[in-house]
Amino acid sequence: MLRLQFSLLFSHKAVRSYHKMSAHKSRPFTVFVEGNIGSGKTTFLEHFRRFEDITLLTEPVEEWRNLKGWNLLDLMYKDPSKWGMTFQSYVSLTMLEMHQRSTPTPVKLMERSMFSARYCFVEHMMRSGILHPAEFAVLDEWFKFMTNQIHIDADLIVYLKTTPSVVYERIKKRARSEEQCVPLSYIEELHTLHEDWLINRKHAECPAPVLVLDADLDLSQITEEYKKSEHQILRKAVDVVMSSPNKMSPKKPITTSPIQIVPQRRIL
């Protein structure tokens, strides 16, 4: 049954290509689901939970909320200048654990990554003056060490592209206690950093090809769009990697333009 589901999901040609890649790399096809706060990453991941061939790794928020009784996420939001360094250090540790976690399936979907932690969130703290230059230097050196010395698998990035005002309203509606003090300006700044990293390629290398989804739709509507296009999205993911000249060198910067995918349109 599992083999049949896998064949239906990816198509015979993609499956054969994947198995050749899997035999060489001995690892799952790895997708990072990236986007701003409130962009619908958890909704996207949950949509694929019913597939037996996919392992989902959600952002370890509960670990950030309870480190031996300490809510580091809450401390960081309330006093970022004091707790930003501590919080981002722990984020690096927990994200590295997710990257290294073995999975029993041929596909692995991760909510965010070490790369967005560094290129978006740590970068924002540095630019806004939240981090002392010495603190930023330590976090940056730690990131460089991890990415240079430890192989971080990356085959595809799904970017849930949103408008800051839309996700700001979502954040207020979901009423996560730690996020109640988040201003719209913070969301706008994070949006710019995601765009500069994944779309404009201004300030950091992109470790994998990028698929862009319009995630401004209402979450109830976008779930239906994911349902309509799930097979095409995943098959396209494999095809993109198979045709990428960088597929065997995930640390090499990707210079090709992001692939624009409109949810309402069929993916061929």
Automatic annotation (TrEMBL):
InterPro entries: Deoxyribonucleoside_kinase, DNK_dom, P-loop_NTPase
Protein name: Deoxynucleoside kinase domain-containing protein
SUPFAM superfamilies attached to this UniProt entry: P-loop containing nucleoside triphosphate hydrolases
Gene3D superfamilies referenced in this protein's UniProt entry, alphabetically: P-loop containing nucleotide triphosphate hydrolases
Organism field: Chrysodeixis includens
Lineage: superkingdom: Eukaryota
Residue ranges occupied by any Deoxynucleoside kinase domain in the UniProt entry: 32-232
GO cellular component, one term: mitochondrion
GO MF annotation terms: deoxynucleoside kinase activity
Coiled coil regions in record: none
